[in-house]
């Protein structure tokens, strides 16, 4: 159980009557900022030039790009496969999710790829240009990337500017995409042969697969616990540097359908697991996790309903995967309280 699901249940139960609801999940409407992605939806094919550093030799690439709406309109998913031939065996593959972060008050993007793992970016639309800015690391060094995707005359121009360590910025990627209406094309697969987690992510191997989580949520101090059940499907992203988990609840009468996408990878600079998530209730965020003894401890903080909170979720890992989970929260000036307890059952 992460904070996202407990908050989503609380937000749904406490939603004000005047707030607009929509079918089928009876959740809040997607933020209007997500309408700007309409020109980007569909399938695209592209080609261009990439550079591995300032003054590097140009590398030609071809790519397929598929963009669609997910999470009842609260998210936009971008799936990119790039073929660089023999220059980069296995190629490059990424999945990026865009959402509106209600705490930050702007668009964000969560991405995972087969080369660096997971990253979080600030995103915004400037006219017909989607602009993203990412602060992260590249081979253990501080790195900043700025990406632009500009739509004009039915085509799209992509450019990625990179700055690593103290080096001057350089154009890392430059290319053009055109819409493709025929049968879906797939560039050479990018690293799907790597079926094992790499590095510190290997310590979470037992969490892969399908499991059912059954437990009880306490939405507010003094209120009765609410039973809930979810199914979690965790898989390894090509390249072995990230896990993608899809969480879906098993709704009871009167409860909304809940769905969440979650990415997990190891942050080499902060020495912790980064967990990025977004759901179909319009919530999104980032958390950090650590392994201690046989427990996977995830910590999150922020504001909820105008009050600051901090939450710790502890999952006891057994030999066959997650076994027992608890969540404890500090909210506002109130004493800490247990907000969730549950048990896992491995399905597959």
Rg (C-alpha, Å):
21 Å
Shape: globular
What's the CATH class label of the largest domain? Mainly Beta
Q: Into which percentage range does the β-strand content fall? A: over 45%
Euclidean distance between termini CA atoms: 19 Å
* Domain module count: 2
| CATH homologous superfamily caption of the largest domain | Calycin beta-barrel core domain
Order of helices and strands: HEEEEEEEEEEEEEEEEEEEEEE
- The CATH architecture term of the largest domain is Beta Barrel
CATH topology of the largest domain: Lipocalin
Low-confidence stretches: 11-25, 186-193
Q: What's the mean pLDDT score?
A: 86
Work out the number of β strands: 22
Q: How can the largest sheet be summarized?
A: 10 strands, antiparallel, barrel
The secondary-structure class comes to: mainly beta
Helical fraction equals under 10%
Major β-sheet strand ordering: 3-4-5-6-7-8-9-10-11-12
Number of helices: 1
How would you characterize this protein structure?
Strands 3-4-5-6-7-8-9-10-11-12 form a 10-stranded antiparallel β-barrel. Strands 13-14-15-16-17-18-19-20-21-22 form a 10-stranded antiparallel barrel. A hairpin with a 4-residue loop joins strand 1 (21-22) and strand 2. The chain has 2 domains: 3-25 and 195-237 and 242-346, Lipocalin, CATH 2.40.128.20; 32-179, Lipocalin (Beta Barrel), CATH 2.40.128.20. The protein has one helix at residues 3-13; strands spanning 21-22, 27-28, 42-50, 59-70, 75-83, 92-101, 106-113, 117-126, 129-138, 141-152, 155-164, 170-179, 209-217, 226-236, 243-249, 259-267, 272-279, 284-292, 295-304, 307-318, 321-331, 337-346. It is built from 1 helix and 22 strands.
């Amino acid at each position: 159980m992460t904070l996202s699901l407990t908050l989503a249940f609380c937000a749904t139960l406490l939603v004000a009557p005047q707030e607009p609801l929509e079918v089928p999940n009876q959740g809040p409407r997607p933020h209007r900022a997500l309408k700007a992605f309409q020109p980007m939806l569909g399938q695209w094919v592209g080609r261009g030039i990439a550079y591995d550093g300032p003054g590097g030799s140009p590398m030609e690439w071809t790519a397929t790009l598929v963009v669609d709406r997910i999470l009842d309109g609260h998210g936009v998913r971008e799936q990119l496969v790039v073929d660089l031939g023999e220059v980069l065996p296995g190629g490059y593959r990424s999945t990026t999710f865009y959402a509106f972060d209600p705490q930050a008050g702007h668009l964000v993007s969560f991405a995972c790829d087969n080369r660096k793992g997971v990253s979080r970016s600030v995103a915004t639309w400037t006219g017909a240009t989607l602009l993203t800015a990412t602060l992260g690391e590249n081979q253990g060094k501080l790195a900043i990337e700025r990406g632009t995707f500009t739509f004009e005359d039915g085509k799209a121009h992509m450019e990625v500017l990179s700055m690593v360590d103290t080096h001057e910025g350089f154009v890392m990627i430059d290319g053009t995409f055109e819409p493709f209406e025929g049968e879906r094309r797939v560039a050479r697969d990018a690293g799907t042969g790597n079926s094992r987690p790499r590095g510190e992510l290997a310590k979470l191997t037992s969490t892969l697969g399908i499991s059912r989580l059954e437990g009880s949520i306490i939405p507010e101090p003094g209120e009765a616990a609410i039973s809930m059940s979810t199914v979690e499907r965790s898989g390894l992203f090509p390249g072995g540097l990230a896990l993608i988990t899809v969480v879906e609840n098993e709704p009871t009468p009167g409860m909304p359908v809940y769905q969440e996408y979650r990415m997990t990878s190891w942050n080499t600079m902060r020495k912790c697991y980064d967990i990025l998530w977004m759901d179909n209730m319009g919530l999104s965020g980032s958390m950090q996790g650590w392994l201690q003894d046989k427990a996977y401890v995830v910590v999150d903080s922020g504001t909820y309903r105008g009050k600051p909170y901090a939450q710790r979720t502890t999952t006891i890992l057994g030999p066959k995967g997650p076994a027992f989970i608890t969540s404890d929260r500090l909210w506002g000036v109130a004493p800490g309280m247990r907000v969730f307890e549950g048990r896992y059952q491995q399905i597959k």
